[in-house]
């Protein structure tokens, strides 16, 4: 019960189907698909499966992945967060700009505090005011982009002495041979997955996303739960901004533009339902990695990066359709 | 901002009318998207400063915020106000043509600044003033030949697809490169949308894909520095010559450190002043050529000291 498959559908599946290779394959369809993708690309490009390329892709995917961890929690709770793109711009511009003004420690603290405040605004409007999360976060997407432009006055921000600051560690550093962004991504994913699977708090988030009425009747304080998911999402954005700012050592005003859709693509590809109440962090991790490898594979084959958009969304629609077709079939067999 | 300028303009007009009877020109400008990048932000203040210094010019400064519909509305507005000339920084080289034609029909000369409009609209404008992006691409190609001694393999990181500046620079670069040093081969071209982080990612993939890269041409320094960052973390920056365009402060500093071979110096101040001057020349009835390009010289370690560090 206390696993990530603690869902309406997941529960039914485990009851009706005993484990078998075929069932494993269809249940883990996304993983199988992932391996097929890797295999296909490796046929066309020698470098694709090289260790250095895999490291590069995982490192590149970690910024999207870090944000996706937080947004997955929001989605499991039955809401959406589209504001993460401009929130990322905001936080990156802020931390880079303040770095030279008040030093790295102060910059990081202020950035985290203000990013969490933006998350709190989202959380308040959706959780306590009960406004539609799509509209609230879409509005915040534009509003925060405006805020960034007002703050920076349109100027790009840069860190002056790039070789002299330890701030570079978050985006460019290595620990035991593993890139720091990857470590941050992995840590966040593991911690959040554990919280979602093994704590009462996690179960409450699944509950309000799956059946809000029942959850409220069983004593879940829905307002606070929803509010908290937006804080988690904002915290993840702040971590991503740390990595992004440190990687580029500068920031454009619109650096996060489009990230909200990439994040969403990774989550959907992983198989987390946009309806709430189902999903898991590790699925999102796989989804984000698939996204990263598709982009990288296409680039290695010499296609411009935007072909990735076409390919990704075709795959997503295919994946969603297969998933749905599968569920329908199972429901039918169960009832007959 | 706009109201303040409009107010200042009317006050200035009033005082100018009292003090002197000499003819005062009212020039309206609608810009593309001030505040979205440092170049455009600097352009706006430079334009206002240049207008302030001239006694016989009043300006109405507008900004379309990147929105084509709003820009068309602003042009109509300026026609209604009966300004003497309109300067437009097109949000889109095609969609603004009908509005420009309206101004032309109303007898108001239009000067297009910074970025060109499509061929079909050229009949309706008095002049274009801006950088010659084809020439800039060609200059970058010449620097590349110089840096590689006429032999090597390079990659190109281009600006946003569909953006005139990006296409013209690429074309100028590719044509001149083939002519000046045919032994330099472009392995691959990828767009990175003028975005440093994207350029960094594209370059990381190039570095994985190609074991031997001798040079990188980037459509602007922002992307060039992104590519440099990627090569530095892969430990391959020493073997690669980086050449950009639109010299940014970060690019200037990288040239100073000897990590970046060269770029093209394009000052938003020159750009703004040239636009205003072109409009004035038109109003004063001077013979003005259709295409007016302001100087955008090559900048490398050899002549770095002749230039001020860009403010953006």
TrEMBL record, chain B:
The lineage of its organism: Bacteria, Pseudomonadati, Pseudomonadota, Gammaproteobacteria, Oceanospirillales. One of its GO terms (molecular function) is carbohydrate binding. Its main location: other. Belongs to the bacterial solute-binding protein 2 family. Residues 1-21 form the signal peptide. Coiled coil: none annotated. It comes from Halomonas nitroreducens. Keywords: Signal, Sugar transport, Transport. This is Sugar transporter. SUPFAM superfamilies: Periplasmic binding protein-like I. CDD domains: PBP1_ABC_sugar_binding-like.
